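To whoever picks this up:

The nightly regression suite flagged Ribitol-5-phosphate transferase as changed. Nothing in the input moved, so I suspect the structure step. Input below, exactly as stored in the fixture:
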Amino acid sequence: MSPPGEQPRLSRRMRITLCQGVLAFAIVINLLILYYVSRLQQQMFHRHRDHVQPSSRLLPDAQKPGVTILIREFEDFENYVPDVVQSFLKQKPEQPVMVTADTLPYPPLVLPDVPNVQLVILKPAPDQPARLSRPEMHVKTEYVALVPDGVKADSTRQLDRMLEEFKANQGRVQMVAAAVQSFAPLQCLNLQVSLREWTAQYSVAPSTRLCTALKGDAVILLQTKDLFNLSAPLAKPLLTSLFIQTSLRGWTVRILDVSFSSAHQPLLSSSHNQWKADNRAKASRLQLFRDFGIKRVLLEDGKQQWFGCSKETPRCFGTVHDDTPEYLYQNRWTPPCCLQALRETAKYVINVLETSGVRYWLEGGTLLGAARHQDIIPWDYDVDLGIYLEDIPNCDLLRNVESGSIVDEKGFVWEKAIEGDFYRVQYSEHNHLHVDLWPFYPKNGVMTKDMWLDHRQDVEFPEHFLKPLLPLPFAGFTALAPNNYRSFLELKFGAGVIENPEYPNPAMKKLDKGK
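Regenerated output under the current build:
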């Protein structure tokens, strides 16, 4: 029997121990909760990081030696892509092959069901990861060979020799080419692209082996990293797109003494299919030049192709703000189609003025272009002519525009300008490239007018500059200009203006005179 008072003390100790246990249990539970909450937060953070930085997961694996066959251009309605693939696999069963298409081909391509052959659809699908539509994520080899439809591989030595030749010429060329045997031989061309002037110019290369572009069917081999560092590596037409981009980078291609046979000549079996293919190729070429901002192509045979504006379309640029057209901000000059339309309009208007007995002269920046370039200034966007106010009644078109715009028999639009007291002749109702006619009249031996614009060249000048008017070459014809045009221009623009070109509003955009 416990001594008196012992039992209560024991109970108190037991109660304290029980409370401590409950407290310890609660602490453990809280620690477990904190641990799992922390784990959950970490998982959510990693998921968020992976979501906002997908590029860290989309980097391709390290490239291995070898060549991937890449087939890009073929027609859905008739092609020999499965045969091309089989011909390469016959020579080397493990040969990597990738077929790319903008959308899923229909009828479907029947490709070998092996891991080293894959079809990559370039158009992203909303329910698929981005990497599936990015071909650079699927090429695991150091080199890629661009192979056209209908090609047949006859030997493993074809690709091996191309690779050997590439390595032997590395540092001197960035691409090597093997001709595809066809009715038209592979031709070596030089290509010069001026994005500033919106122009691509082809010419026959002095060498038959080393050039910057090719005409004809060929297998092209280059490094994978070089191909996929281009801004549009698989744009169509493939070789046109490829050589425009590579010529801008100063790359060259060497034609090798290697060739591939063509299993199908002609490639398409009917004239109807050929017609469809030709129309698609024409549309692809038009879209390519629009995307690349090329509006004029000079071919090796001297012919020209235009991909810009015309009388039936709007001009290539919108409303001009602060005397600085939008193309100057793109580091480009006036599109060549616009310059051509301005030349045509100026020649036409001057002919009308001369026929009607309206005295005129080249004014402002137009005269400056004639003095400096014998043409329109390469970045100008209109043509300015001065006319004698008293001669306006001599021209029916100018006299009658007071009652509204007139579209003449050639499609040019004559109107009184809404901006002020002068006249404007537009290229067409659709295309508003124009010639402005500024009426002046003599007053005490000075040529003046009733409306002035906030342009530094818009000033009065002595009439003796117009007596006499002198012929000056301009835009492919002869126009009349003030006598002593240098003094006339320096009066309007400042000393040395002919020798020191500048954009119309240097405060907004300065001319880079180093280019």
